[in-house]
Amino acid sequence: MSINYREVKGRIHSIESFGAVDGPGVRFIVFFQGCPLRCLFCHNPDSWSFTDGEEKTAGEMIDQIVSYRSFIQKGGVTLSGGEPMAQPEFCKAILTLCKQEGLHTAVDTSGGVPLSIAKDVIDTADMLLLDIKDYNDDDCVKLTGKSNNNALEILNYCEETNKRIWVRHVCVPEYTLVEEKLEKLAEFLSKFKCVEKVELIPFHQMGMYKWDFVDAEYQLKDVEVPSNNMMDKAKEIFTKHGLKL
What is the CATH number of domain 5-170+205-223? Predict the structure, then answer.
């Protein structure tokens, strides 16, 4: 039975019509509602709940997206979150409709869902922006509440299928912005042909006030934002291993 992708429903958190940092070119960003992770550095904890946000159909979303075609034609559409692949049917529906419109697609994912759930979405998208939260699994659990196994399985699948990948890594002093850990991650990623680029993202405190809205304790209030010098040293580690930044 054929699927009417326009009628598939899901929940979104918000949109950004002129995104410039979530994939190549100028992009329309759809932020999905709901995330299985609880990252200590999250700046959008209001996107965690799977019952909040606004219900939309994929048809409503694509109609809104194509109204910006003249601005995003050379860029595309990025599905972000929350975690878009936690709503796999809705995610795939929007991606499919975008492809029918000739628009480039990317999925910004935490790798927080199993590959068995993510596979159809990965196969439909043109590329992934894959967040590697912490290469050390025990530390990843402490930082996000979940193992990194799903993210690494997704990365391996993308290598097998030649799916284009940009890896993202948030640099949090005392947690991930640690020379030894960055060396191990850079060495690991250098073996993957599918990884076109690594984006090292400096930790910031801009979303700290939102934690009050979800009645959760923000544990990183005393962690300093990394200096330019600290970020430059981190970048040197990755370029040394032949990775493009």
Answer: 3.20.20.70
